[in-house]
Amino acid sequence: GALPAWMRLYFYGMHGVTVDVLLSSALRFARSPDPRMLGFSSPFRCVLHSLSHLALERLYVRRPRRSGAFLFHFLLYPSAHVGLQTLAAHALPLGPGGGPGPAGALHLALQYVLALYHCRVLLKRFLRLRYPGPGQHPAPGGTAHPATAAAAGGRRRRARGHAGAPGISRQGLPDLLRFLFFGMHGFLDEIFFTFFFNVLGRGGGAGASSGHTSLWSFLMYGSCSFVVEKLYFYLHYGRGWGTWKRVPIYVIFIYTWELAWGLGLRMCGACSWDYSHYPLNFKGLITLMYLPGWIFLSVYQDLLSNVLWQVQYVPTN
């Protein structure tokens, strides 16, 4: 029941983009404080993170259990991590328009700390996630989907999963981890969108080698997707609504959420987007030009939610 390779690659790429955004935003803010808190990455770095961290994972699972464990955790694994990330920094620079990221001793120190985090915290827990194969129960003793209980006024009953799948286990990912996942996915969405927008808008010229997002997007996307997921559980499992009956509710909420956040951030000078040059915009904060994109992401999130509710965490002894 280990997570399939495609799922691990997906997460490693998304997590790597998040780290890129956090580092580049902090370095940029230190040079020139900007309440928008912009950070940078690119789809190329996403792919590179996926492949490099899958390779580091293979190294990690072969770690010594007793003798030599200290040297592995504090020397061998960090050395491999720092080497790969240094090569990546030279091949695909991090920063606005592909500009340089941290250099010299600062880069090495940051990467060493990140290596310890990956080895001692992230992989130690991430590799305990399990995903059931086709036709298997999500976990022994599966219980009703939480949305089913909510729709029934708290009554306990077994949920009918998608495609007749059994009920979802209580061992599914907790709400906090789901919020963190959606926040990181928001970074990934914006990096990909702004990267391709730059490529199409600038013809691959200066500034087209990276995408950008704002640290505020983590909270905005994380909270929005978390609520939309709750709507999905209630409307689909509780009310039996089909996809195209649910999507208008999603879209209305997304536009309302984007407008509310935009108004709040604009008051603080921290709003990182402006649609005033687009037709069909309202106060430059929302525009119907992005309606197809929001519809696509809404439907895609339903698929992600179905996957996430089958992921289980096997606790350590």
Give an overview of the whole structure.
This protein is mainly α and 317 residues long. It is 61% helix and 5% strand. The chain is built from nine helices and six strands; from the N terminus they run αβαααβααβααββαβ. Strands 1-3 form a two-stranded antiparallel sheet. Strands 2-6 form a two-stranded antiparallel ribbon. The protein has a two-stranded antiparallel ribbon with strand order 4-5. A hairpin with a 3-residue loop joins strand 4 and strand 5. Helix 3 crosses helix 4 and helix 6 crosses helix 7. The longest helix is centred in the middle third of the chain and has 28 residues. The two termini are 18 Å apart. 32% of the residues are buried. About 10% of the residues have low confidence.
Element layout with pairings:
Layout: H1 5-31, E1 38-41, H2 43-61, H3 69-91, H4 104-126, E2 129-130, H5 146-151, H6 175-202, E3 211-214, H7 215-238, H8 243-267, E4 281-282, E5 286-287, H9 291-308, E6 312-313
Antiparallel strand pairs: 1-3, 2-6, 4-5
Summarize the structure.
Its main location: membrane. With 317 residues, this protein is mainly α. 61% of the residues lie in helices and 5% in strands.
Category by helix and strand content: mainly alpha
> Averaging pLDDT over every residue, what do you get?
84
Q: Note the main sheet.
A: 2 strands, antiparallel
Helix content: 55-70%
Please state the CA-atom Rg, rounded to the nearest Å: 21 Å
Molecular shape: globular
Which strand-content bin applies to the residues? Answer: 5-15%
Widest β-sheet, arrangement of strands = 1-3
Per DSSP E runs of 2 or more residues, the count of β-strands stands at 6
